[in-house]
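The material for today's practical consists of a large collection of protein records. Getting from the letters to the tokens is the skill we practise here. To make this concrete, we reproduce a full record directly below:
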Amino acid sequence: MIDDRNVRAARNNAEWCDAVCRAHGNAGEFLEGMWLNRRPVPRFYPNAGTIAEPNPRQLDLIDDLIAARLPPGWAVKDSFCTLDLASRGFRVLFAAEWIYLPASGLKNGIASGGEVARWEIVRSDRALADWEAAWSRAGGGDGSEDRIFVPSLLQSTDITVVAGYRDGRVVAGAIANRSDGVVGWSNFFAPDAEMFDCGAASLATIAEVFPGLPIVGYEHGDELRNALALGFESIGPLRIWLKT
């Protein structure tokens, strides 16, 4: 039996993927334990993700996407590590861990933000463009000038983009999205030496916008270690399968 926290985290992440696609005029579908999008999606985003325990229909839907002949390099988020897609021409791009922070788990006294002068909610297209440029410079993007995070995302009351400023420039940030009684924490970036302080400050800012809700997400490597230091619990594995 899959932990309900994993299910809510996976569903929340799928809702975020769908929101990004919808903002680009290309919403996906929620079908039989899976979110999927039958058309090309913004870069870094999958075309499918499992959101429930495995069932045969999930593989049928993936086969439908294969038959649709999407551009090379599309991906499936195997949210509970229950799919074996190697025989279908996929390889594992990376593995990660779902993380969970209860509403009571924000640590006191660590939300100063370090040397980042102030944290604000992003409310304008100009500020969002500056945020995305900083996110890309920090390693989140690939240098492309094509926007992923477009202004219509800011119109949703369930999505908040937070930015940390120093000397008038964005140097840290994160995105939060609310669904299924949890808040997703994603696209976090900060200077390497300030990952912990900025992580705590971003979480505190998000908790002010969405009070009383647990925070979920997924991380791997150094980002996972930072999340665990911030008080998150690792609640289960996932992996990303890339169509080769």
